[in-house]
Amino acid sequence: MKAQEVLKQIKTGAVKNFIVLSGEDDAQVRQAFHATLSALDIQMPELNLSVFEDRPEPLAVVRSLETLPFMGERRVVVIKNTDILSSAASGELSAPFEKANLPAQNVLLIVQRGKADKRKAFVKYVMKNGMFVECNVMKDNELTAYIVQAAKRKNLLISARNAQALAALSDGDMGVIKSELEKLSSVCRGDITADDIEKYAVKSMQYNVYKIHDLMVGGHAREAYALIERMLAEDSNPIGFLTLLANNFRQMLVARACRDARFPEQKIISHIMQATGAWEFAARRALAQCKQFTARQIRRALEKLAQMDFDAKQGIISLKTDLYPLLVDIYMNANKKG
């Protein structure tokens, strides 16, 4: 069930006693939680809303669930930032909820961290008798369509190509995408152009990594150097830069191995996503770019990046002076035979 379906049902009065929000996309889960809580329209929340976190004592939750609402239509009990429905959690943490003697109008809303384990008895019960929402990471085409529609709701037009660019700038983070669309809607009139995105959208660290990676792979070392200089001028030791760059090479190594094994393209993309947790667009990039490196060159790059990361943390080297020469060494090697 999608979050929008739940909201629609709540607004028509078809509220169920149990609502579970779960999935891989934290931003979507957070948005679904706030929208659901708002739709439930809790009167006198100071008396009719109870919030638990992590792994609360089940009986405390049950007692709250069984309490009648006071001067309001319903009482809502929330368990958020929890993993009680994960495969790692004991079934005893959720089993008592199903047997609670709760008033017909009361609601238990669980906001699960990550995916819920559908083998759990309580999860099966909610899927059958309640509202079970999965907020999973969107595929590229879904994310593009979402951005186009979100812009349209703000009376703006954005092409699929520019929507993809905005998704890449935001590293696919739904929270960042919403924030950037809000900003763009305040400065754009009619269309959101590529120039608007380049000028106004905040570039994530991942975007800068992609850009530097693309420039170096494409042989545009001077432009890459200028971007590195700008980045280091803002932060002389950007935390996570080398890790993100290494992630690119890990994705490329998986792609290269699959390609060498003559896997079909779609299977390679699926395998990259599964093995590295990459977004679909990142997996496609890795497949396209791995062709310029041998598996040996990619492994060498990963070793050098790991060594530089260690040396930088120990204070042995400075990214300001040593990062660019390392990148030249790594990427220029791609033009030589492995």
Automatic annotation (TrEMBL):
Start and end residues of each DNA polymerase III delta N-terminal domain: 21-136
Which UniProt keywords are present, listed alphabetically? DNA replication, DNA-directed DNA polymerase, Nucleotidyltransferase, Transferase
Per the UniProt entry, the Enzyme Commission number(s) are 2.7.7.7
One Gene Ontology MF term: DNA-directed DNA polymerase activity
Pfam family, any one:
DNA_pol3_delta
- Report which superkingdom the organism of origin falls in: Bacteria
Name its GO BP terms in alphabetical order.
DNA-templated DNA replication
Reaction(s) this enzyme catalyzes, per UniProt? DNA(n) + a 2'-deoxyribonucleoside 5'-triphosphate = DNA(n+1) + diphosphate
Q: Which NCBIfam families match?
A: holA
Q: What is this protein called?
A: DNA polymerase III subunit delta
